[in-house]
Model the fold of this input.
Amino acid sequence: MTSSKKYFYEINIAKGIGMLLVIIGHAFPDAEKEFYLVGGKESLAFFIENLIYSFHMPLFMLCSGFLFLPKLTKGINTRAEISKRFQRLMIPYFFYSIVVYILKIFFNQYANHPIQIQDIWKIFICESPSGGVWFLWTLFVISLFCVITRRIGVIYISIISILIYIAPYPEQWMKFKAIQYLSHYLLWFIA
Done:
């Protein structure tokens, strides 16, 4: 007797909407550019960008958590699951981070945000020069946390994620993107 995988078309639709919003959100100029000097922070473009950025990444985390939930409620091989998650998330993360790092080192004089070769260790704490791959690192660490703590139950993991979300952090901690991402997106993943 084989069990068939459940397929959720709604998740694909939600991810498609999220991807479209990412494209639209990134099509807007940065908030600090002169584009906003015309309309200011009251402009329609500023409102649309803020609206999109308020929920498009939580939507991806929500979809990821929804698809990951069955793994938390059934018996899984912890080591195998961590290995699988590492291969699917961290290998692409490290690959793109290192490729961009090497390119930025060679073309540092032309880069908007020059980097130093001695800062390569920062890719381990979600400080990748390839900005868009932060999602892979965050998703890996969150799923790692959930796999390791799954024995305490989803209810307790939910309570922990709420406490992490609302906890006041020292200002110097919030300088680290890893803490910002984990404290915010763990709750959406668990939701």
Observations:
- Residues 27 and 73 are 40 Å apart (CA to CA).
- The chain has a mean pLDDT of 80.
- The two ends are 32 Å apart (CA to CA).
- Helices lie at 9-27, 35-39, 44-73, 78-106, 134-149, 154-166, 177-190.
